[in-house]
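Researcher: First entry.
Model:
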Amino acid sequence: MKKILLLLSATILISACARQGYPSGGPTDVAPPVAVGCKPANESRHFNARKFYVEFDEYVVLKSAEQNVLVSPPLKNKPEYSVKGKGVQVTLNDILQENTTYLFQFKEAIADYTEGNVLPTYEYVFSTGDDMDTMMIAGRVLDARTDKPWSEILTVAAYRNVEDTVPALVTRTDKNGNFAFHYIPQGSFHIVAFEDKNRDLQVDSTEAAAWDDLTYNAADSIDSTAMAHLRVSAPDRSRQRLLKAEFTARGRISIITLKPMQHPQLTGEPLEWRLNTKGDSMSVWCLNESCDSTVLILTDEGLNDTLKLRYRAPVRKGRRTTQQQEPLIKALCSGSNAYYDDLRLGFTMPVKATGNPMQAEVMALKDSSVSFCPILLDSNGLQARLNTKLHSGENYRIRLADSLFTDLYGHPSDSLLFNLTPKDYGILTLHIDNKTGYPLVIEVLDSRDTIIQYKPIRTSGSLKFLHLPAAEYRLRAVVDCDGNGRWTTGDWLSRRQPEECILYEKKLQLREKWELEERWTVTTDK
């Protein structure tokens, strides 16, 4: 009996020791599956099987295998993919070419069954002949606009001849824009990277694409100077169309289009209208101030729309609210304006000047001294400029008397009073030596690559950028081949490359009260 008790005690002790560590089941598995064997073996020669099997160290699942498995060279009939035991079985539905190396790339197509950890990539390769192709081509796809790696996944196709429609090889970029063709034969290839949204291995005219006119030779190893560097952009295939047309208040209509309008015509109700600076928004004022329904015809390049509009008062808590009258005049300047900036006024509708003296009262608050400055009304009647110069850091009070302007309906403007403390901003002067042979668009970028200001320049010369806050800036030049004053995307259909964007090698640190001068010789890479 004592022996039995001792044996039980020893068993309990051993069992307790074995349970030490993670009583809740152990740490979370974060490792992807690991391949432990293949049938036939990976890198087999004289391959003549109709299927192959890859076994892993744990149970796995397939994730969109038809989209995430690339076969190079491509097969006419897609293989079938299935899970069997702890592995993946691939059944071939094609007659394989003789003396050819085939590569199956599993790009995030396999994950473990329990935790869903994805295997980033796995390659299975075989040869139908005596030899295995072992050469490679590598490269990178960059955003043509920013020169940064293209983060979206692209299909990359290699063609023996530029006129071929079926690629000889295929692969895919990673999230850093890198790609590589492995196990490829000797020779030179043309390379195209594209979105391939429908997975047909054909470049669609609406898809982002990158290509060049070079050929790339397969090599045993890749030197950085031999890598392909492609610039990708998405074509602008969108057609002009009307996005919105509605009454914003009685007598007032807003019209918005997808693209800037070129030479719009608006007929119907007696009215006045103005385009915004971008040209894609039109503000309309009916000459009948109480107009609440109308039919208008809008025509322009790509537009021929009949607009049937009716005003609907806004509803709040089940009740229609009374239309609020906006102030006719407001200040467009504030304490953030540079001391040498124009002081501007804005109007909610076109106005006309009255016969009163068009002056604004300017009071310097430090000594209460008062001066008067002319008010210059813009030709569109929507803005006016105060013709005065102020000093940086000083406090001012600007006053406009009432009835200086009248709107479309004969209503006079109210008086306006606002304070202003202009600041010191910087000035950037660029001396451009243009060696590209094309006009340029010079862009000033902030630390987030947002365009702060831009100016066109046809040949060489100087540009001055005013009102720049103290900050770090970069410069970018667009080689404006088509002369439209902006960057133009590439177009695979017409084989037009995106316009080249060239970054200035230095970052510029601009401070308040500085006028920074830079000289830039702009040369194209091509």
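Researcher: Second entry.
Model:
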Amino acid sequence: MQLRTLNDVFLNATSRGGERAILTQAGDQWQPVSCNALYWRTRRLAAWLQQHGVSKGDRVVLIAENRWEWAVVDFACLAMGAVDVPMFPTLTPDQTAAQMKDSGARIAFVSNAELAAKVQKTGVIETIVVMDHEAGGIGIPFAGIVAGDETDARDADFTAQIASVQPEDIATIIYTSGTTGDAKGVMLTHGNIASNLTATTDLFRFGHEDLMVSFLPLSHVTARHIDYLFYAENVTLAYVGRAERVLPAMAVVKPTIFVAVPRVYERVRQSAEGKALKAGGLKAKIFQWAIKTGGKHRDKVAQANGQPSSLAWKLANKLVYSKLAEAFGGRVKVFVAGGAPLGIDLARWFADAGIPIFEGYGLTETSPVIAVNLPGRNKLGTIGPQLTNIEVRFAEDGELEVRGPSIFPGYWNKPEATADVFDGDWFKTGDVGKVDDEGFLYITDRKRELIKTVAGKFIAPQPIENKLKVSSLIGFAALQGDKRKYITAIVSPNFAVLEDWAKGQGIATADRAALIRDPKVVARYQQEFDRVNKEASPWEKVKRFRLVPEEWTVESGEMTPSLKLKRRIVAAKYTGEIEALYSGADTE
């Protein structure tokens, strides 16, 4: 499918008359939003924006969880050539104010009264529109703006306005999550994103019979790209705004496509292994046998070339794999991971459990997809072959550089930062990698996150951290060791699993600080480090670790909204613990 601007996505998504484009949840019920409804609500909102002084190039802030109103605001801005600026609802008031001020927006759309109050207190925004508006609340009710008839007719003036938007026009400004520095506004044009979508629409071949649960935050480029892709492909989107509602939603709507960041897959694995461990006895042995059996058929499963014919595999599928598939609703035919490295161990485990995951890779600045694995061409541990519209090369230090029509024009209001990431027209990704003889790309780590020991050894932390997170006992691990003699780790436990295990050992769990100091607990975690260290080179071995009593979350600041580790925040928060690991004043 050839797409010129993102408005082609909107026109395609609303061209099917009365068919459903969206499923939205109201209490326990799922209600359809028709293509006509999506069209006319977008049309009315675009007219309202014009009446309130928004014109081509003006910025509009959007702060909301995934919901049909998000799509309407987005499509309305795109249709009139305005620039939407999505922001994560979890940002602090100071972060929200800074991004809104930097963007120069005057109007903000927010999902609820709490966010409306946060935006109002900043004093930056003139007009606030609230999706969940309460009588007497702050802002203008969204429902009143978009209400009206939803017929098959189309508005000629609106069609002309849509057609006037050009590929070089800025479509959106997405602020980076700040894992390696201060947040920057990434400008993406209609042509940037449209060219990336054009290169990905035919890779998996979806259609109107397919359905996807949209739950990854739409303020992140990965979720945004996926939703556009499926609108273009006539796939129905079921919006889920809260993480805890995802599994119940999948059980009801039964998606055929599942796209998630690696952390979601990690949690599914940890849950499955935790249940098997807790069940013990025969059930635990069957689970372990099934995973081992799946390992013998990993390559066939990974390629999605049908089920293995082995009787043992079919029995394992009936007893174990099918139960795991049911956790995703039982109908998913394509699983995709993006937004962060999946990790070879996690990819292998799911293939062994009958589920092939197709890992992709990209950045906000690349609109986002650079490479992705495909059915029949899926090599575990890689990010797949590059897209056809992208050129790649590697610098002398191994940094991946790319160029093509989907590469962004620059950072908003930051010409020096823009110049820093370009070598001519080649964008420097900041990721270190390689390509093999079959054209599969590998990403080994982020260039800025490489640890250099005093001995001059460079160590990539993410592969080691991913191996550690294979354990259901480990929530997150953050390796330390830059300019040090050896590698250490700060570990945030998966307390749900740890506390279950501790109860079985007769260890009190009421006090987490005491729990993580218990010698039996420390010894149990040492086993996980021994497992990882066994396969590591001498300089990659983790010599010491420290458990901490906090679970790292987006809200507490250690994780980005896309569930990536904020190393600088962790290092600053646990300065004392890290120093103790190197002073010898603390136990291993």
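Model: Note on the second entry: Residues 262-279 form the longest helix (18 residues).
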